[in-house]
Design brief:
The complex is a heterodimer of chains A (226) and B (124). By secondary structure, chain A is an alpha/beta fold. Chain A contains nine helices and eight strands. The radius of gyration of chain A is 18 Å and the shape is globular. Chain B has 124 residues and is an alpha+beta fold. The chains are: A alpha/beta (226), B alpha+beta (124). At the A-B interface, strand 1, helix 1, helix 7 and helix 8 of A face helix 1 and strand 6 of B. The complex binds guanosine-5'-triphosphate, magnesium ion (MG) and zinc ion (ZN).
Chain lengths: 226, 124
Amino acid sequence: MHRTYVKVLEDVLDANGTIAAANRADFDRADVTAVNLMSAPGAGKTTLLERSLRWLEGVRVGVLEGDVASTLDADRIAHLHVPVVQIDTDPGFGGECHLDANMVRSALPSLPLDELDLLVIENVGNLVCPAEFRVGEHHRVMVSSVAEGEDKPLKYPLMFRACELVLVNKIDLLPHLDFDLDRYLQNLDAVHPGVERLLVSAKTGEGVEAWREWLVRAATREAVPA
Amino acid sequence: MHELSLASAIVDTVERHAEGRPVRAISLRVGALRQVVPESLEFYVEIVGRDTVCEGARLELEVVPALLACCGVEWEPPSFRCPRCGGGGKVVAGDEFMVESIDVGGRSTEPNRPKEDAACIART
Ligand SMILES: Nc1nc2c(ncn2[C@@H]2O[C@H](COP(=O)(O)OP(=O)(O)OP(=O)(O)O)[C@@H](O)[C@H]2O)c(=O)[nH]1
Ligand SMILES: [Mg+2]
Ligand SMILES: [Zn+2]
């Protein structure tokens, strides 16, 4: 049978990477630190942002809401009186399970980048796809709630390895759960040894100050411990 | 789980290289660390590829095993921790996701599967 091979040798995500680089250049030009916040659905991304973004020590913060299916999260953030833009790109085929660089790019003109120091991008709740698609962020942070079980790092190493900070959320629930925190942290270290982690509760506010400090350091471009 | 998103990226990549010629086969190298389920990827490439040059193309998928290295030793996951120093180690192999080549030599005669709803099932 006649076969005509064309060498391609191209990373499948190159096209996304090119657009991500353009976003990154825009962030850098405006001196904005971009943080991509990822998690499984309902881990507490929006609640944590509600808790932490008010009065962020002079840091001017904006939020890009990736929840493409509704404006619920954007409405919650709007109460904080910070600029919030909802990604309104018509999600491409299967696109509503994560943000990609192009979706973020299309939202940038709606954001006052020059007036911001920090942009938090709340990704779509999903423990897999967002880890594959960089959007031009400087930092990738994930929220992992104790309600999800200790085995999650082992089951979703891609996401746990992609981030540089893990916010272990909902620790107020620990007394009520059959969740072995030590085992969880061992599993975390097995897939991403030494990754920075903060134990937090968006509900009680425990640990949230450390997360706010992390954000301030990131926004002022102090070396964030990797 | 995220094979649908990746299938779109594959089809985009192939379309840019096929220059309008119908594609018989797509040769892919996928690292084990990418958490891809081959059957699922095949399924979605077929759906996303409809009405493109990829329609009916066969997926030739080579899974590259994961290998990590640190302190002069190499090891395989599940643990990513260096057995010597406990550090993170470097991924030597297993994180690739590359279209190696495509076969544009003539038309595929394989029948298509029936159209299915391709809503994202990737939410976990
Ligand atoms: N007990 C407890 N509940 C929490 C905490 N953080 C969030 N929740 C609850 O968890 C649910 C989901 O929180 P969200 O902040 O909407 O989660 P999300 O990650 O933004 O969800 P999606 O955007 O839909 O993926 C809500 O009912 C919150 O009140 C916490 O620290 N403790
Ligand atoms: Mg939310
Ligand atoms: Zn080592």
